[in-house]
Amino acid sequence: MSAAANTVSLASHLPVLQVAVPLIAAPIAFILGSLGAGESARRTSAEVCWWFTFAVSVAILAISGNLAATVMDGTVLSYELGGWAAPWGIEYRIDSVAAVALLIVSGINLITLLYAKHAVVREVPERIRGLFYTAWLLCVTGMLGICATGDIFNVFVFLEISSLSSYILISSGRDRLGLLAAYRYLILGTIGATFFLIGVGLLYGLTGTLNMADIATRLPALAGNQTLIVAFGFLAIGIAVKMALFPLHAWMPEAYTHAPSPVSALLAGTATKVAVYLMIRTMYTVFGVELAFDAMMLGVILITLSTVAVFFGSLAAIFQHNAKKIMAWSSVAQIGYMGIGAGLATVTGLTAAMLHMYNHALMKAALFMALGCLFWRIGSMQIDKLAGMGKRMPWTFSAFVLGGLSLIGVPLTAGFVSKWYLILGVLEQGWWWLAVLIVISSLMAVIYIAKLVETMWFREPAVDAPTGEAPLWLLLPTWALVILNFVFGIYTALPVGVARSAATALMGGN
Amino acid sequence: MEHHPVVRVAAKILIPPILLFALYVQFHGDFGPGGGFQAGVIFGAAIILYGLVFGLKATQSVIPPQVASILTAVGVLLYAGVGVWSVMLGGNFLDYNALDSHDPVHGQHVGILIIELGVGITVAAVMIVLFYGFAGYLRDHD
């Protein structure tokens, strides 16, 4: 076989390689990580594990970049796993929506992994670092799989892979409360996954197929069917647990607070985004706009809950005393913005939701990483301990402030772009009151960011407070994300264009 | 359990047939009921029975903990390796037809046999690792 033919054949396998590469890498990382016996051998094997995971992460980012470039013009890649044709076999299906989600996951994965190399030294016991990277790879595998697959049962399998490994990741830190947080997440996450599976089972009973596209063609004939309504409810609630939509968000603040900082950054940047993607995929592609939004009134439910989430999350964030918890509650609020956008069921609304998926991944990962830099130096996330640290760690502090500006939605930042489109989408419906609420909630973000800034900059540091900046290897990935926040806030053509084409495809137009 | 000769003798008689039955369920799985998961559980159960009767130390000299934990990964690699192999032979991922260019049915046969072996190894190893984890907990935390 000639070299050219080889590359062509490899390119046709990219949809499955996107998921298979990290899946195969995980057990290899496990073997590499469990080889070392002594103290120094263990350190070396953890190091080897990181380099291996890094190489794999570069590869999957290259694959998702390649996939995104292929499908942006509207082509849809379909891959028959095991050579079994859809709808009988499992189909991997990459369209522009999936490509955006894949790109978010693999991009955030690479940057947080760069950050993890040094952050784990302080936060994860040496004994389990090899396992840590194995769980990390499995978590990424699960999230990539959810985005790549076109089979709804396969989604459940990947949902479980990513959830089980994220329980491990959350509890892997030295913070003992991480165990409790992971356990709470395990209970709620399992309930969510079970609800999702019951929904899938009912859909399978109704249609006799598990292929999303195939289900979508069969559902309109079943409109009004009682079982369909129940299936819809189970699926919607199951996914809402995973995306931490109010009032099913209880697991998230604890989990993000007590996880090691690279894990908080990875999960905040990807896990909830993938769940939002799954919500959009299930509701728009599988059920379709008519069924989900006209017959089942998903729009009203989603927008009401999301609006409450925005206010409840922001209000709770204002009253927290732990910096990481403030950011975690703020995530509850930010999920609300995506929910509002997805609930509008218009091209502009969906564009806003997709944009915010992307932009929120950038800003929240940057903020968690900046907090991780502070944690590296201080060893605590209590607000009192942060007093005056802004002056001692100017680079970390300015990264935090700039990420915070993006979170608030100040012009020239990525956060502004997505809020702008969200307000446009809301005004399109003539709901000026909702636009006012969105602006008010942004002002609440000003309060909790300002509270942290005030503590870190205007208060005097404690006498015994540590001095010195965070290490360069923590600052570089953090700043890379902060700069991306501004790049995509100023050059908006690329993300907006991609989000709009994805939204148009979801709404069934072209 | 050293002072229970009946249990010891019964276990010694039972363990070899249990292991043999696990292998039967494993490799006869594509003709009759069975397969990798069930076989792995049966195999793991035999080792756990040995551990319950003869003690953790004796069991770990048969299957060292590190070997068991590496085997959990080896099974997954065997499964995924078949996928990579089929891609290299020009088929889709996990397309067993590609494994034999002359007789696709034979390819299917080979493919399912190997991936089920991978499943069996991983399931048995995970059972053993879990047993070691629970049984060794008191010893590790005293």
* Radius of gyration from the alpha-carbon trace of chain A, in angstroms: 22 Å
* Global mean pLDDT of chain A: 87
Q: On the 0-100 scale, what is the average pLDDT of chain B? A: 88
Largest sheet of chain B: none
Give the count of structural domains of chain B: 1
Number of strands of chain B: 0
Strand order of the largest sheet of chain A: 1-2
Q: What is the straight-line distance between the termini of chain A?
A: 39 Å
Shape, principal axes of CA atoms of chain B: elongated
Residue windows where pLDDT falls under 50 for at least 5 positions of chain A = 1-5
Rg of chain B, nearest Å: 18 Å
List keywords for this structure.
heterodimer; A: 510 residues; mainly alpha; 78% helix; globular; B: 142 residues; 6 helices
Quick structural summary:
The complex is a heterodimer of chains A (510) and B (142). Chain A is mostly helical. Chain A contains 22 helices and 2 strands.
